[in-house]
């Protein structure tokens, strides 16, 4: 019986940047949708350099805090053209943008979750995607009661999950490692 070497691990990139996006991927709603906001940011690696070939993927509730999914027995409300999902590759400067509607609070088993957007990041050199959340700065009371957000004891780490208001939307930079690293969840 012969022994074969272990097959090397496969990373999630860089080809995902080529194969996963589609033209309207960054639009969870169409441009001109009332109440639409942009979520924009930059993805940085552990050395603080931009990551020009990552993919950002978002998943969220509608403005009423409902999901159009069988696991949500309340069902989604009607928001024409809202698909609750976005996917955007980063550009040469590491930037991304998703046009969406701001979600509502989501009921959970340990109390209401503040309005948030779930974000997955796929990038070269990573064996798996990383998952984080974006919270909204004006939701101070909801954020202070959110069971996930308050479970992060370090205030500086917790702050990496709160976007900042900017222009026609919000800014949410992602730092994959190093100083100011974004909090990621083990799911």
Q: What count of domains describes the coordinates?
A: 1
What value does the Rg take, in angstroms?
17 Å
CATH class: Mainly Beta
Reported for the largest beta sheet, the result is:
5 strands, mixed
Share of residues in strands: 25-35%
CATH topology: Protocatechuate 3,4-Dioxygenase, subunit A
Query: How many strand elements?
Result: 9
- Gap between N and C termini, in Å? 39 Å
How much helix, percentage-wise, in residues?
Answer: under 10%
Taken in chain order, the helices and strands follow as: HEEEEEEHHEEE
The average pLDDT score comes to 89
Q: Output the CATH homologous superfamily.
A: Aromatic compound dioxygenase
Counting DSSP H or I runs of 4 or more residues, the number of helices is 3
Query: What is the CATH-assigned architecture?
Result: Sandwich
The residue ranges in which pLDDT falls below 50 over 5 or more consecutive positions are none
Inertia-based shape: globular
SSE-based structural type: mainly beta
């Amino acid at each position: 019986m012969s022994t074969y070497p272990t097959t090397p691990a496969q990373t999630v990139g860089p080809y995902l940047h080529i194969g996963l996006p589609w033209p309207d991927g960054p639009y969870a709603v169409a441009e001109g949708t009332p109440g639409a906001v942009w979520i924009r940011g930059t993805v940085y690696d552990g050395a603080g350099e931009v990551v020009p070939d990552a993919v950002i993927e978002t998943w969220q509730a509608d403005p009423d805090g409902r999901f159009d999914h069988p696991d949500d027995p309340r069902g989604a409300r009607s928001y024409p053209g809202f698909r609750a999902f976005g996917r955007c590759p980063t550009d040469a400067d590491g930037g991304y943008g998703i046009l969406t509607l701001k979600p509502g609070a989501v009921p959970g088993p340990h109390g209401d979750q503040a309005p948030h957007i779930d974000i997955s990041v796929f990038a070269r050199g990573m064996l798996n995607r990383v998952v984080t959340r974006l919270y909204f700065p004006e939701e101070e009371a909801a954020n202070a009661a959110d069971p996930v957000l308050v479970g992060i004891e370090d205030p500086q780490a917790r702050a990496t999950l709160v976007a900042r208001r900017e222009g026609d939307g919000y800014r949410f930079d992602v730092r994959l490692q190093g100083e100011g690293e974004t909090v990621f969840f083990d799911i």
